[in-house]
């Protein structure tokens, strides 16, 4: 019997790659429900899987910010169960905190936090009733350590960590595993899709010069990190596979293979200043601080 997998946010990036990999498994181990908010964006996925058999992939509409849309997608799972749930949909928000509108901040939390939690809520009762299941969540380094100009994004990803860890403790009693796949920079549409304050934006006119100066440095740093150190989605998919195939999955996986040095630094120094100083130096190094 095939393992039924449902993935959110499959129109691009990690979700798309994971859906393609699982649906093209040579042993046809999986039946994949690749879900996306906007079905008009399904062409890319279809293009990647066009040589595949229909029996391993289905594409469903699902907007994680709409409870009705989540329930409709759940109803369309013909097996009437999901063995592996991958909460992957997410968006970024970048810029000086003082220019972020309440609406845009809410939107990030709606997708990243409540979207993830509501998706889990919809599939949890079924998993509990069957006494098995695996919930995987695409986590971020930004959920483990603060990053300047990403306050609200980090807040949403930190919140996910808390929700997942809390849930994992309880779900042990139901034979349901929870795993976070912690990603650093990945080559996806993430940077294109995120809401980002651009340096010429009128909204930035009210911001002080030092902040703008540091923001410019941050954007340069971010650009070079993505250019030089970003992983490909295939690397991320390998880690998802490892987690999915493990008989006793870990709670946390790091896609780079190990805990990033600065996350380690943060964990070993409770006072927190060493992490804050080290990150500031890394990002704004040409600035004497
Ligand atoms: P991406 O932008 O290519 O993919 C995100 C997907 O989520 C998109 O397909 C988007 O349409 C979808 N999405 C957005 N709002 C949605 C909604 N309301 N309902 C359903 N789907 C929605 O970027 P990605 O890098 O593949 O992102 C996937 C996950 O990885 C995100 O949770 C992101 O936070 C996380 N992540 C990405 C990086 C990175 O550097 N790319 C790093 C760490 C974590």
Description:
The protein is of the alpha/beta class and 289 residues long. It has one domain (3-194, 231-258): Rossmann fold (3-Layer(aba) Sandwich). Helix content is 46%, strand content 15%. The chain contains 10 helices and 9 strands. The protein has helices at residues 13-23, 43-49, 67-75, 102-130, 151-171, 190-193, 209-229, 233-245, 261-268, 273-283; strands spanning 3-7, 30-36, 57-61, 84-87, 93-94, 133-140, 176-183, 195-196, 252-254. It has a 7-stranded parallel sheet, sandwiched between helices. The model has no long low-confidence stretch (mean pLDDT 95). Bound molecules: nicotinamide-adenine-dinucleotide. Nicotinamide-adenine-dinucleotide (NAD) binds next to α1, α4, β6 and α6.
CATH topology: Rossmann fold
Unreliable parts: none
The helix-strand sequence is: EHEHEHEEHEHEHEHHEHH
Structural class, by secondary structure, is alpha/beta
Question: Could you give me the name of the CATH homologous superfamily?
Answer: NAD(P)-binding Rossmann-like Domain
Estimate what percentage of residues fall within beta strands.
15-25%
What oligomeric state do these chains adopt?
A: single chain
Number of domains: 1
The number of helical runs is 10
Distance between the termini: 60 Å
Q: So, CATH architecture?
A: 3-Layer(aba) Sandwich
List bound small molecules: nicotinamide-adenine-dinucleotide
Helix content: 40-55%
Radius of gyration, taken over Cα atoms and rounded to an integer in Å: 19 Å
Largest sheet: 7 strands, parallel
What's the β-strand tally? 9
Q: Strand arrangement, largest sheet? A: 3-2-1-4-6-7-9
Mean pLDDT: 95
- Overall shape: it is globular
What is the CATH level 1 assignment? Answer: Alpha Beta
